[in-house]
Amino acid sequence: MSEQLRAIGLVKTFTLHNQGGLRLPVLAGADLAVSAGECVVLSGPSGAGKTTMLRALYGNYLVQQGHILVRHAGGVVDMAKAPPSVVLDVRRRTMGFVSQFLRVIPRVATLDLVTEPLRRLGVDAAAARERAETLLERLSIPRRLWRLPPATFSGGEQQRVNIARGLVAEHPILLLDEPTAALDAANSAAAVALIVEARRRGTAIVGVFHDRAVGEAVATRIIEFEPPRMAA
Amino acid sequence: MSVLSLADVTPAAAEPPLLEVTGLGKNFGALAACRDVSFALWPGEVLGVVGESGSGKTTLLNCLSARLPPDAGTIEYRLRDGRVADLYELSEPARRMLMRTDWGFVHQNPRDGLRLGLSAGANIGERLMAVGERHYGDIRGAAIDWLGKVEIDAERVDDIPLTFSGGMQQRLQIARNLVSRPRLVFMDEPTGGLDVSVQARLLDLLRGLCDELGLAAVVVTHDLGVARLLAHRLMVMCGGRVVETGLTDQVLDDPQHPYSQLLVSSMLQ
Fold first, then answer.
1. Residues 17-76 of A with CB under 8 A from B
2. Contact status of A86 with chain B (Cβ, < 8 Å)
3. CB of A101 closer than 8 Å to CB of A181
4. Which among A155, B38, B236, B239 would be 20 to 30 A from A220, CA to CA?
C-alpha cells in the first residue's frame, strides 16, 4: 500500500518562558510511517508524548527539527516547513483530526457543524447533509438535537458530534486523539466500527486511545511510546 | 509500495500576495508605536492581530488602511488589474477610490463607521453610489438584500441607525462595508462593545461572510476567542513589534515567544 504519512526525526521541546525558562523535551527524534489502510496506535504511559506527536503531525505544535511528509493533492508536502496556507489546505483536503473535546462554535447547529468540512470541499448542501445525517444516526445523536448548537449537550454527545465532524469528509489521513474517552460501551462500539470502516476504505490512521481494548480493536500496528529521559 | 521521501517534496506554488508590508514604522513623538513590521496577506486570508492595549495594533491597522501615513517602510497592494501599487504613492483620489470600493473598514464603534442621520438603506447604498450605481430601485434592492444577510428586518430599511441597538448598528456597518464586494476588509475590535450573546451572533455572521465572499481581512482584537474563530493566521504584537506569527491554532496552542505564552496563559478558559 502506498505510504500517506511519514515523520522523520521529530524533535519537540517545550520552553516555558514564564516558568523560569523550564525546558520540557517531549519528542527526541521520533519517526513514524503510515500507509493507506493502516491504523497505527500510539501506546504508552501518560506524558510519553503521544498527543504531542499527533498535534505535531497536524501542524498544531511546532517541531524544532524533523520532517512531516504528507501525500497531498498529487504531490508531497512537508508539514514541518510548509507555509500556513498549505498546512490549511492539507487539513481541508487530506488530513482530519478528531480531538477529545469538541470546540463549540456559538450559534452553529450540530448538523451545520458536521457538514462544514464537506461544504469546504465544495460538496453540495444536499449531499453533505445526507452524509452528515448518516453519521449522526450511526453515532446515536437523537434527531431532535441536530438543529441545536451542541453547547448544551452532554460530554459524550459532544464527543460523538466531534467524531462525526472528523470522519464526514473521509480524509485520506486521520489523526485520532482519544476519540472515545467519554463514551459508554455501546457508543464506543459504534465509533470503533466507523474507524475500522475508514481503515478498510484505505484511510491511513494514527490514533491514541486510553482504552486498551478500543486501541486493539482498531489497530493494525501498535507503537510503544516511552517518556523521554530528562537531561541530567 | 511507494515510500515518501524528502526528495519528493513539491514546492508550494507561490501566489502573489494581496498586501505586502515591509519594515513599517510609526512614531508618535518619542514613542515608537510600530517598529519594523513586515508581513504579507494573501487573497481570502483572515489575519488576526492580537496583543494588549498599547501594543500598536490599531496604529498598524490605521497605517495599513491608508488612514495614517507611516514614518518608515512600504505597503504594497495588488490592484484588481494585477498591478502592484505603493499605497502612499498613489494619488489621493486613487487612494480614496480604493477605500470606497476595494476595501472596507469596520470600526469598533459603529457610530464611527455609519452616517447616523441617514436611513439604514442610504447607509448601505452610499458605497454603491460611490462606484457609479445610479438606479434607485437597484440600490434599494441591494440594501434590502444586505439587511437580510446581516439579519436585520427589511422593514427597518428607512429607519436611521440611531434607533438601532448596538448589535444591529454593528451589523449595519458590516453590510455597508461589504455591499461593494471589497477584496480586503480591516476590522478594529469588531465585537468590542457588544454583550456576549450579540457577539456570538456577529462572529458567526462574520465567519460565514468571510468564507462565502472569500474576503481577505485584517482583524485587530484583544480577544483570543474571537481570533481563534475568525483568523486563519495570527500576528502577536508587543511594544510595537511583531513578536510571533503563525497558524492561529498553533500560536494559541503552542505559543513560542514569552509574551505570547503570557497572553495565552492569561486567557480565561
1. 17-18, 33, 35, 55, 59-62, 67, 69-71, 75-76
2. yes
3. no
4. A155
